[in-house]
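Customer escalation, tier 2.

The customer says the design service returned an amino acid string that "doesn't look like it belongs to this structure." They asked us to rerun it and document both sides in this ticket. The original structure tokens are below, unchanged.
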């Protein structure tokens, strides 16, 4: 059985409805998958907004501790399947997603983390300056299956439509209990921090399994207009730098090398030549890295990259 876990916090009702409607259209029999909606402290609660009577094994659970990681952990605790598929509250799955996922999992027992190609459906057209940055919105386009067992995998699966085997989910839960600093890697309320999905994928790799992105899995990411603004992108740049720095310092991925004095001097000379927005992006990344260092210091965690 596949356990489909939707973690949601104050979602757009229209988006969440489309997510559920896409699940209704799945070609895989509902006898072969369950549906868990984890309401992560939404106001108002989502239960009165959803009718899940069409599915024989669907339920809504409430997780009051705010944060995507806590919602995922609650989903893992409640799940009954041998695979857990995390579907964000703005992810519209293709109708064959679950059927193709079941087929992949059966034919590739050495893979334990499955990711999808992700297209974007934009509420308004992305501005020209956003070109080349769409990957920051979890847009993934591969023309072939990409998988392996390395932290430096060409394309690690993103959180949208991420599926892992039960053994990996359980190991991830145990690891967080002994390393609570990792609870800070993902979104919480209005925070855009995003690194928990990578942490889950790396758990599969640590266990000796493969991870990858597969062309037979595809979903559409619903992207509102506010995510196409420079303000949002600056917030996202800071949050992503925070997550990457924190993961690197606790041994959950590579750290960017510290620039030498020549590089720092060159960057200083180049700064007046770049646009105001590029300077703001650099400053945002620096703030994110500095915040990660402060959080580790305050937690008393000893960096593994001293």
């Amino acid at each position: 059985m596949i356990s489909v876990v939707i973690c949601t916090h104050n979602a757009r009702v229209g988006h969440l409805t489309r997510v559920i409607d896409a699940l209704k259209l799945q070609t895989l029999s509902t006898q072969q998958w369950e549906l868990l909606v984890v309401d992560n402290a939404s106001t108002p609660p989502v239960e009165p907004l959803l009718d899940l009577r069409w599915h024989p094994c669907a339920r809504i659970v409430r997780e009051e501790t705010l944060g995507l990681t806590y919602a995922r952990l609650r989903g893992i605790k409640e799940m009954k399947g041998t695979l857990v598929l995390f579907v964000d509250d703005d992810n519209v799955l293709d109708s064959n997603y679950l059927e193709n996922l079941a087929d992949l999992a059966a034919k590739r027992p050495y893979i334990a983390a499955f990711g999808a190609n992700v297209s974007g459906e934009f509420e308004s057209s992305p501005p020209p300056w956003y070109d080349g940055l769409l990957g920051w919105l979890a847009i993934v386009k591969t023309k072939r299956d990409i998988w392996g067992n390395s932290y430096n995998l060409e394309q690690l699966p993103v959180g949208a439509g991420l599926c892992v085997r039960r053994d990996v989910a359980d190991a991830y839960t145990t690891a967080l209990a002994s390393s609570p600093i990792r609870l800070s890697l993902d979104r919480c309320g209005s925070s855009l921090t995003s690194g928990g999905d990578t942490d889950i994928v790396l758990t599969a790799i640590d266990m000796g399994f493969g991870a990858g992105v597969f062309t037979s899995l595809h979903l559409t990411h619903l992207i509102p207009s506010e995510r196409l603004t420079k303000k949002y992108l600056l917030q996202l740049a800071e949050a992503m730098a925070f997550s990457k720095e924190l993961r690197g310092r606790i041994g959950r991925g590579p750290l960017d090398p510290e620039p030498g004095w020549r590089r720092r001097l060159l960057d200083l000379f180049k700064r007046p030549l770049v646009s105001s927005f590029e300077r703001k992006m650099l400053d945002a990344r620096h703030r994110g890295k500095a915040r990660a260092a402060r959080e580790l210091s305050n937690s008393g965690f000893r960096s593994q990259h001293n």
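Tier 2 assessment: The sequence is consistent with the input. The mean pLDDT is 89. The CA atoms of residues 52 and 137 lie 29 Å apart. Sent an explanation to the customer and offered a walkthrough call.
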